[in-house]
Amino acid sequence: MQRILRFNVLLLCLLFLGFVLAGCENIAGLKKIKRMEISKPAPDFELQDSAGNTWTLSSLKGKVVFVNFWATWCKPCRDEMPSIEALNKAMAGQPFQMLSIVFNDDLQMAESFARRLGATFPVLANPDSELTGAYMITGVPETFLIDAEGILRHKFIGPYDWDTWEKRNLVQELLNTPK
User: Fold this and answer.
1) Which CB contacts under 8 angstroms, 24+ apart, belong to 169-178?
2) Which residue in 15, 73, 77, 93 has the most C-beta neighbors within 10 A?
3) What is the pTM assigned to this prediction?
């Protein structure tokens, strides 16, 4: 009897683990979150900036998109911001869009910080954890490069100097990739 009970408990645990690993797809009405995967379509999102403008990733097809998750309370994020703006200015006039998404932070404070630095890219609010879950954010800063077809090509964890020829060439390669 004891063996049967242990077997049933083990079986239930394995079934539960299977559901978790499968992404909890429609269990008890839970919505499956599409998770990011390199070389696959980037998870779509619709977010607003401080002016109330809506930004949708899928509407930016045809452009290389740079998505940076950051926060004002994160010193490496603040330190990285001038090089992000330098890259944005270097890509001016090309089919390129930079988006910054605040992570566990106040949108108005983030917007104010970005403008004091002279940032010209949109600062977007992230009102819930669904998007950070889809992009598998483990901390900030984290940056994603998405090609003109909406395919996620690169994920960068931690701060980087984006004002280098290596990073500009990486973006340029995506801009020059035939569609």
Assistant:
1) 170/145, 171/64, 171/66, 171/87, 171/91, 171/96, 171/145, 174/64, 174/145, 174/147, 174/148, 175/64, 175/91, 175/94, 175/95, 175/96, 175/148, 177/147, 177/148
2) 77
3) 0.80
